[in-house]
Amino acid sequence: MMRGYWARRAILALAIFLYGTVHSLASPWAEVGDNQLRGDIELLAAAGVIDGITTHWPLPWQSIVKDLRDNPLAGQPASVRAAAARILARARAENRSGLSASLNIDATNRPGLVYGFDGMGRGEGQAQFVLDYNSQSTAARLAIGGFTQNFRANTTKLMPDESYIAQKAGPLLLYGGYMSQWWGPGWVSALALSNNARPMPKIGLERLDTSASTWPILRWLGPWQAQFFVGMLDGPRAQRDTFYNALRFTFNPAPGLEIGLARTEQFCGRGHPCVPIRDYFNLSNDPLHPDKTNDEGLIDVKYSRALGNVPVQVYMQLMNEDSSPFTHSGTSHLFGTSFFVPMAKNMLRITAEYSDTVPTANIFSFGNVFHGFAYTNGDFIDGMRYRGRTLGFSLDSDSRLLSLQGSWMDSGGRFYELSVHHAQVSNPHIGDAGFSGINILTSSPVLINLVEARVSLPLRWMKLDLAGRLQDDQLRPRRGFAASFEAGLRIGL
Predict the structure, then answer these.
(1) Which pLDDT belongs to residue 26?
(2) What is the pTM of this model?
């Protein structure tokens, strides 16, 4: 048995260096999962070149390209002009018409604990064949492969992740499929909706054109974007046939200022009425009432400005459990700042970020907390989780994470990233609101220090991603260090 296990591991490792995992070659969106691309986009936003929506991923290429064409780059530093050139080249490549194919493989001896915007594999191994079709009005992707959480378990599940079909309808985009999403300004965490869990099947509608409204009464909103989708939380759950919907509205009322409002909701499921959106704006939603939904309210704010030749961003995100986005009870927090420092004709991005899912009674009353409250509901036992992972923050409920991240790309297109994390995971207290504290990672409190280094190497027709992690692993019987390695080679066929 062990011989077979190591044989499979060796074959997969060899396949990594022969084949690989690539980002989509044809897509109407700039997709979740690429910190280098996102860094270029956020750099232009901080420099004032892009005055559109950058906290709602995937981002429609249409709005990004429009901003770049409308804003002249004369007088901008060389690093900003280089970032704009890379974005336009990427947009042209991914918006070309026709068919394209890629092969995606990822393997690790231990999945990462902190799963940020550019997280790689969610399990020990996955492989996918991807076929993309793109035209002026229609885009479709068929992504079929296998996924295993643990090689020793010798179980592989079918993985349709990132498959979709999308159709333009004037200024709108209608879509259906399994797309990863990231809502919010954070780089390491997103409280309500991130790519931590595998994407659920969904259908949705979003605005492609993010330009300001021509109506005088709405002109003050500036550029704006809206999206709504309904998904199904399939797989093993205490309440089967549970549905999930989410609504987000993002706008830029002033240069450099981006504000996002969102609402997420669980409804249906065994023992619950199927009445979506009923409690969206109910300010007194009772999480213990079986006829009520499980919902979250979200607000995030990001401000970008150039201080001399250093573009700077500061941001925050607040998530309220079972309350309106405009009230603040059971509030989880995220705060962060990013600096883009000129370095060797490119920009070094330095980000400091703090996330906290120990909800407070009021917005900033950090001494008065509700344990066992975030992502949990008195009657929706599974809460805001899907296939063993949280829909939002990767450390789940009752956890805190302090992160420092730096990334830089050299003149050869090689991308380097270093992240340092200090995490407090879980809390054993019985919830103050009457719930048992639930954290799917661990039932006892753990302090963890984690260092992660990553490099992305562009090769001909492919890209090699390598990541190494060293973790002070107190989850093991004996306190010590645990090392892990992850690799993915992305190739266009």
Answers:
(1) 64
(2) 0.89
